[in-house]
Design goal:
The complex is a heterodimer of chains A (379) and B (1091). By secondary structure, chain A is α/β, with parallel strands linked by helices. Helix content of chain A is 22%, strand content 31%. Chain A folds into two domains: 3-146, 3-Layer(bba) Sandwich (Glucose Oxidase, domain 1), CATH 3.50.30.20; 158-378, Class I glutamine amidotransferase (GATase) domain (Rossmann fold, 3-Layer(aba) Sandwich), CATH 3.40.50.880. A ten-stranded mixed β-sheet of chain A has the order 10-12-11-13-14-19-18-17-15-16. A seven-stranded mixed β-barrel of chain A has the order 1-2-8-6-4-3-9. In chain A, strand 15 and strand 16 form a beta hairpin. In chain A, helix 8 (251-260) crosses helix 9. Chain B has 37 helices and 40 strands. In chain B, a hairpin with a 5-residue loop joins strand 32 and strand 33 (852-860). In chain B, helix 32 runs parallel beside helix 36 (1061-1074). Chain B is globular. Residues 552-559 of chain B have low confidence and may be disordered. The chains are: A alpha/beta (379), B alpha/beta (1091). Chains A and B meet through strand 2, helix 3, helix 4, strand 15 and strand 16 of A and strand 11, helix 9, helix 16 and strand 19 of B.
Chain lengths: 379, 1091
């Protein structure tokens, strides 16, 4: 088996075996605690710039299929770190192995390392840049390559993953025994319903599927699309999507959002929520090691209901900093961080977690209905 | 929502004796419930007939009733205690069924008792198949095609659309008793008839077979605010067709994508909401068609279950504890997660390891039983193991089983047998899988035969392939750390590596140590390390070291070792070795003792370290001991923990044979064994040394000798005199032991024994006919000895003590005999240097002149099975006292200066799994067959005994006819017994031979035909429900055959019975007691206060 190394910026070295593509990968090392959903995680554009470690130990079990992807064009992570990679896979929808898939898309993976020790290290010392290499096995050399890496803060990563061209979306949610939903991606809308423009900062397909499921007419536009152009399209609502990295770096997104406020109903998710927070005059801050997993309890404060949510963010909105323009609506019960808000006057709300799931629980999915209702109210 | 203030007193029902399908997991859940309800300030009233439980400890509840679990008794308790609420979800199916009965009888309404946790409509909706089907249809979930039928006629209609193969499941039975698969009409008729009988409501579900489908379970919790969380997903390695209790199961689910898992999760949430379980935990089972993913719901348990105990141990999320709190109105987000402290219980545990559960079977005890695994549960216990990968976890689980298998050892067999071993699920199948790979079969072929998912098969294939690597590179193993490291992280035991490489376990251990390769310990923390955990709940693994670059141009790293989270403290600490998987002969009693040892040592200020691998137990609850190692109880695994923890001493006395076997090897490795020195154990166990010991003390033992050949045996037996007890010297614990009455049977036995093991002698003991057996539990501190209890057996000597009922105080022995027994016990304890517990078995033989001869049968310087029973009877916590003595306290200092004396009577009765094993004879003998026990407590023997029998579902008859058919030697006792029955208003019927004796003495006995003598015969009477009790004793093996039908019918038609004359006498005696006093109930706290 081919050797591989993972070296962190603070000099910690893990030796393991290579899987996936050969080569080197640099990125911020984060851990994800979901036990299922590696394919969704790999293809989530929010992981641009990051090397993802899975805390669950058995990876590759159910292979790779054609449907469960969150973006086109393969994985978005920089590298993949696992305890055990299993070449064999078993699932009726499986179309190939995880290793082949990574290889095909040039993603470097490392297996056989103590991922729990790595996770505890990240928990204690924070997320930091790391390098995986299957080629250079001298740890010092690898260390030299990253020791002065500035990290991924302040960088506009959304630019790298957003769509180049505007497109329409029709595919609804996956259902067992339903049609092959991938075909539906190119189908034409038949209904006359609310029209939603999605700002793609690195949008996950699951968000689009949820919108389609609500029978909405979905148009996805590039992240840098001027607000004026969107207003010209005269949609019934605008969704600010998830995406990778530091929200402050997405300055155009913040500016465009400011222009849309009060003109169109807005719904923000994750990076979209952060951009909205900044557009409303608030501040954002970086978490020590972020939230990445599918088991975080979030309380919807108006009713006291607790939802188990999918989470993937490194930055947070300090909602109080926005002032009394907005109401806090969601709180993460793990660490008390603020995870949702609504504007007291305008048709604007947002959440930090991922109601679209993919991967993770569907508990918060109903929020897409709320978006629809809001458009209904303001139409 | 804050806790409810409108209820103050809560009644909790336990699950009764340990039976197949309902084991100590309900002691675990009940104990947790008691603890958390009292923490919240509620008064708890507990009822359970099983004395061997932690939950029935007098400190656990405000009032503890060790009484039969019947509606009649429960009504009496409700009337006496007037609880505000009843929590029925902690005591398994038993408690749930009783709650339904109490509700339907209007008792709950009459006394204003509210059901909390699950309301009656929810229980019914989950349990009644029609209602369940309707509910599932309503929420758009599929279930297998099925029909609930109440008669043969309905059954024949149903099979038309259900089609073969069809599964039959009787409603409201334990662990799916009577469940079976029918492949054709003939089989179907037969199975349906049986199933209808077994269901207490005569309802059977006839269901489309989903044999071979993938099987999953989800553990779900819901609170009053309708917040729902999934605690754990479980995937069964054995596909549908094998009862989940008999399946190897794995957590988390391995072969579902996130979408598929979320679909199942959504379904589970919809199910718990629709069924309407208000609060608490439920278990939902799913089957999935492996070829297209079609998912069907199999069943839902609206209560805490075996799987929830497993899920609790697998994730660190204490389901029962939280469920109890939810039942009184708290919500998940108000309850903190004990392990992380800062996060709430309203979350879903995520794990970073793989958990494997493997069932433990007892077919060796029931050679006549069908060993095929079906939808009816047959296993008697289970082990759980934790590893970072499935391969590691599986191999650890195998060696946890304690069946002398340390990995995938070879099962050399021919292709046909192998294929059969793969095709028909059986307790050995996991080893056959490995063997199949060894013999060159492919994953596809094996999958075709077993339907086991290829993912699991491939993992096993990799283990087998690695075995080849070891085999082919023996030298490398000793030199190349990389190879050994790899083997260890795949879960290979030193012993298995040694076996493959042709080396010794010690050589591998030494090599490992020389290479600096140590097991590291990781924490079970509910959150995959996302948050800091405060509960040292640990498992071992082998990880590659990580290291830190020293400086930018440094060549070597620092701290070159894998990360270990054990962080041992520098407190004074003692390690307690648990008892491993439940099995016949070693069950909950030993876990009870271990838990008490922990409690006692914590009281003394020691840090306690528990090592065990049984997920059903209280001992493996993370808050029982200070530190919990969920590990196999093998020498290797225990030594590894000792290396890290360096405890002051290790206690091996409380966990039964499992830790006892380790005493000498551990001592050899320099480990301090606390209490009685291992040499004393050897003195008591070694035949020769034991003889010397008794000789020295001038004590008597039945005459005995050994024989290697048939001729020798015949000579020995004629010298000693028949009957003799024979057993091979190479098995312990009554296995293969028999009583033979004549030379012919002896020769027959010897032929078999010599064939099985020619090099081992057969032990031949004088069998003491009609002797009374007595058990004594004592504690010694090395200076003084306290006799905890003298137990007189109901059944005569020769019946395994674990299968015999017994009474404290003795009910027939004279006080002189009891005093002499105590004297001998003291002498033995002091001579052996016992520090801690000791159990002695005596036989008392009455001679003609009124003189009694006392024989010593066995001495065990360790905790015995009867310790919890004696403790409950007397109120003296023997195990706790013993643990303190072992830590150096003196009995005097602990306030124990005289033997406890009680003025009430406590009778223990054994409970048998015969109804699980059709075809197995119910005759008792020297081989233990019971799975559990119950206790009856009252002011006199008769009532205490009748309560014990009622608890064992062997109700003493109050009317009807008693049928008697006994062997010749016993006939002289029949008149006396028959007379009592007749006086008490019962009829007596007997076979011709048996009837002659009382008739001659003018006692009116009805004669009935034997089966062969024409009709009407006794089975007709049994079928017509005319017989309320059966007395049947036999002697030779041939007579056993002839009368088997009697005992079989007793079992089938659930007629109480006894197979000993002493049992019959006790029944008659108990019957007499009824006349004088009505049945009453009293908590054990009051019994104890009284003395």
């Amino acid at each position: 088996m081919k050797k591989a190394l993972l070296v962190l910026q603070d000099g910690l070295v893990f030796e393991g075996e290579a899987f996936g593509a050969d080569g080197e990968a640099v990125g911020e090392v984060v851990f994800n605690t979901s036990m299922t959903g590696y394919q969704e995680i790999l293809t989530d554009p929010s992981y641009k710039g990051q090397i993802v470690t899975m805390t669950y130990t058995q990876m590759g079990n159910y292979g790779i299929n054609e449907e469960d992807t969150e973006s086109s064009g393969g994985p978005k992570v920089e590298g993949f770190v696992v305890k055990e990679y299993l070449e064999y896979h078993s699932n009726w929808r499986s179309r190939g192995s995880l290793g082949d898939y990574l290889k095909r898309h040039g993603i470097v993976g490392i297996s056989g390392i103590d991922t729990r020790a790595l996770t505890i290290h990240i928990r204690n010392y924070g997320a930091q840049v790391g390098i995986i290499s299957t080629e250079d096995t001298a740890p010092e050399k690898l260390f030299a390559k990253i020791k002065d890496h500035p990290g991924i803060g302040g960088i506009d990563l959304a630019r790298l993953v957003t769509t180049k061209k505007e497109y329409k979306w029709f595919e609804p949610l996956w259902q067992w025994g339903g049609k092959d939903t991938t075909e539906l991606r190119t189908h034409k809308a038949t209904s006359d319903t609310y029209r939603v423009v999605v700002y793609d900062f690195g949008v996950k397909f699951s968000i689009l599927r949820n919108l389609a499921e609500e029978n909405l007419d979905v148009t996805v536009v590039p992240a840098s699309t001027p607000a004026e152009a969107v207003l010209e399209m005269n949609p019934d609502g605008v969704l600010l999507s998830n995406g990778p990295g530091d929200p402050e770096a997405v300055t155009y997104g913040i500016e465009n959002t400011k222009k849309l406020l009060g003109k169109k109903p807005i719904f923000g998710i994750c990076l979209g929520h952060q951009i909205l927070g900044l557009a409303l005059g608030g501040r954002t801050y970086k978490l020590k090691f972020g939230h990445h997993g599918g088991n975080h309890p979030v309380k919807y404060l108006p009713t006291g209901e607790v939802e188990i949510t999918s989470q993937n963010h490194n930055y947070c909105v300090d909602i109080k900093s926005i002032g009394d323009k907005v109401r806090l609506t969601h709180r993460n019960l793990y660490d008390g961080t603020e995870e949702g808000m609504e504007h007291v006057e305008l048709p604007v709300f947002s959440v930090q977690h991922h109601p679209e799931a993919g991967p993770g629980p569907n508990d918060a999915r109903h929020i897409f209905k709320r978006f629809r209702e809001m458009m209904n109210q303001y139409a | 929502m804050p806790k409810r203030k409108d209820i103050k007193k809560i009644l909790l029902i336990g699950s009764g004796p340990i039976v197949i399908g309902q084991a100590c997991e309900f002691d675990y859940s009940g104990t947790q419930a008691c603890k958390s309800l009292r923490e919240l300030g509620y008064e708890v009233v507990l009822v359970n007939s099983n004395p061997a439980t932690i939950m029935t400890d007098p400190e656990m509840a405000d009032a503890t009733y060790i009484e039969p679990l019947t509606t009649e008794i429960l009504e009496m308790i409700i009337e006496r205690e007037r609880p505000d609420a009843l929590l029925p979800t902690m005591g398994g199916q038993t408690a749930l069924n009783l709650a339904v009965e109490l509700s339907e009888a209007g008792i709950l309404d009459r006394y204003g008792v509210e059901l909390i946790g699950a309301r009656i409509h929810a229980i019914q909706k989950a349990e009644d198949r029609d209602l369940f089907k309707e509910a599932m249809e309503k929420i758009g979930l599929e279930i297998p095609r099925s029909a609930a039928v109440k008669s043969m006629e309905e059954g024949l209609e149903a099979i038309e659309f259900v089609k073969f193969p069809a599964i039959l499941r009787p409603a409201f039975t334990l662990g799916g008793t009577g469940g079976a698969v029918a492949y054709n009409m003939e089989e179907y008729r037969e199975l349906l008839e049986n199933a209808l009988k077994l269901s207490p409501v005569s309802q059977v579900l006839v269901e489309e077979s989903v044999l071979g489908w993938k099987e999953f379970e989800l553990e779900v919790m819901r609170d009053m605010n309708d917040n729902v969380v999934i605690i754990c997903s479980i995937e069964n390695l054995d596909p549908m067709g094998v009862h989940t209790g008999d399946s190897i199961t794995v957590a988390p689910a391995q072969t579902l994508t996130d979408r598929e898992y979320q679909r199942m999760r959504d379904a589970a949430i919809a199910v718990i909401r629709e069924i309407g379980v208000d609060t608490g935990g439920s278990n939902i089972q799913f089957a999935l068609n492996p070829s297209d993913g079609r998912m069907v719901v199999i069943e839902m348990n609206p209560r805490v279950s075996r799987s929830s105990a497993l899920a609790s141990k697998a994730t660190g999320f204490p389901i029962a504890k939280i469920a109890a709190k939810l039942a009184v109105g708290l919500t998940l987000d108000e309850i903190p997660n004990d392990i992380t402290r800062e996060t709430p219980a309203s979350f879903e545990p995520t794990i970073d390891y793989v958990v494997t559960k493997v069932p433990r079977f007892a077919f060796e005890k029931f050679p006549e039983a069908d060993p095929a695994l079906t939808t009816q549960m047959k296993s008697v216990g289970e082990v759980m193991s934790i590893g970072r990968t499935f391969k590691e976890s599986l191999q650890k689980a195998i060696r946890s089983l304690e069946i002398d298998s340390y990995g995938f050892d070879e099962r050399k067999t021919d292709q046909d047998k192998l294929r059969e071993g793969l095709k028909t699920p059986n307790s050995e199948r996991i080893w056959y899988l490995a063997e199949a790979f060894r013999q060159g079969m492919s994953v596809e072929e094996i999958n075709e035969l077993t339907w086991i998912d290829p993912w699991f098969l491939n993992n096993i294939r990799e283990i087998v392939e690695f075995e080849d690597r070891i085999r082919n590179s023996v030298q490398e193993i000793l030199e190349n750390p990389e190879l050994l490291q790899q083997a260890k992280s795949l879960g290979f035991s030193d012993r298995r590596i040694a076996d493959i490489a042709g080396l010794t376990e010690e050589e591998i251990r030494k090599t490992r140590k020389n290479l600096g390769m140590r097991a590291v310990y990781k924490m079970v923390d509910t959150c995959a390390a996302e948050f800091e955990a405060y509960t040292p709940y640990l498992y071992s693994t082998y990880e590659r070291p990580m290291y830190k670059l020293k400086s930018k141009d440094s060549e070597t790293g620092s701290g070159n070792s894998a990360e270990c989270e054990a962080n041992p403290s520098d407190r004074r600490k003692i390690m307690i070795l648990g008892s491993g998987p439940n099995r016949i002969g070693q069950g909950i009693e030993f876990d009870y003792c271990c838990v008490h040892a922990v409690f006692a040592l914590r009281e003394l200020g020691y840090e306690t370290i528990m090592v065990n691998c049984n997920p059903e137990t209280v001992s493996t609850d993370y808050d029982t001991s200070d530190r919990l190692y969920f590990e196999p109880l093998t020498l290797e695994d225990v030594l590894n923990i000792i290396d890290v923890e360096k405890p002051e001493g290790v206690i091996v006395q409380f966990g039964g044979q499992t830790p006892l076997k380790l005493a000498v090897p551990l001592e050899r490795e320099g480990v301090q064994i606390l209490g009685t020195p291992p040499d004393a154990i050897d003195r008591a166990e070694d035949r020769k040394r034991f003889k010397e010991l008794l000789h020295k003390l001038d004590l008597r033992q039945p005459e005995s000798d050994t024989a290697l050949s048939i001729e020798e045996a015949v000579k020995v037996a004629s010298k000693i005199g028949y009957p003799v007890m024979v057993r091979p010297s190479y098995v312990l614990g009554g296995r293969a032991m028999e009583i033979v009455y004549d030379e012919e049977s002896l020769v027959d036995y010897m032929k078999r024994a010599v064939k099985a093991s020619p090099e081992h002698p057969v032990l031949i003991d004088k069998y003491l006919v009609d002797a009374t057996e007595v058990d004594v539990d004592a504690i010694s501190d090395g200076e003084s000895v306290i006799i905890g209890g003298v137990m007189e057996h109901i059944e005569e000597a020769g019946i395994h003590s674990g299968d015999s009922a017994c009474s404290i105080p003795p009910h027939t022995l004279s006080s002189e005999v009891v005093e002499e027994i105590k004297r001998q016990t003291r002498a033995l304890a002091l001579e052996l240097g016992v520090v801690g517990l000791m159990n002695v078995q005596f036989a008392v033989k009455s001679l003609n002149q009124g003189e009694d001869k006392i024989y010593i049968l066995e001495v065990n310087p360790r905790a015995s099975r009867t310790v919890p029973y004696v403790s409950k009877a007397t109120g003296i916590p023997l195990a706790k006292v013993a643990a303190k003595v072992m830590a150096g306290e003196k009995l005097r200092e602990l306030g124990l200066v005289s033997d406890p004396v009680i003025s009430h009577v406590a009778v223990k009765e054994a409970v048998f799994p015969f109804d699980r094993f059709p075809g197995v004879d119910t005759i008792l003998g020297p081989e233990m067959k019971s799975t559990g026990e119950v206790m009856g407590i009252d002011l006199d023997f008769g009532l205490a005994y009748s309560k014990a029998e009622a608890s064992a579902k062997n109700q003493i008859p109050e009317g009807g006819k008693v049928f008697i058919s006994v062997r010749d030697e016993d006939k002289r006792h029949v008149p006396e017994i028959a007379k009592i029955f007749i006086e008490e208003g019962l009829g007596v019927v007997a076979t011709r031979g048996t009837a002659a004796y009382p008739k001659d003495r003018g006692i009116e006995v009805e004669v009935i035909n034997k089966l062969k003598e024409g009709r009407p015969h006794v089975v007709d009477l049994i079928k017509n429900k005319e017989i309320s009790f059966i007395i049947n004793t036999i002697e030779s093996a041939r007579a056993r055959q002839d009368s088997y039908y009697i005992r079989h019918s007793a079992l089938q038609y659930r007629v109480p019975y006894t197979t000993t004359i002493s049992g019959a006498r006790a029944v008659a005696r108990a019957l007499k007691g009824f006349r004088y006093r009505p049945l009453t109930v009293m908590p054990i706290q009051e019994y104890h206060k009284k003395d």
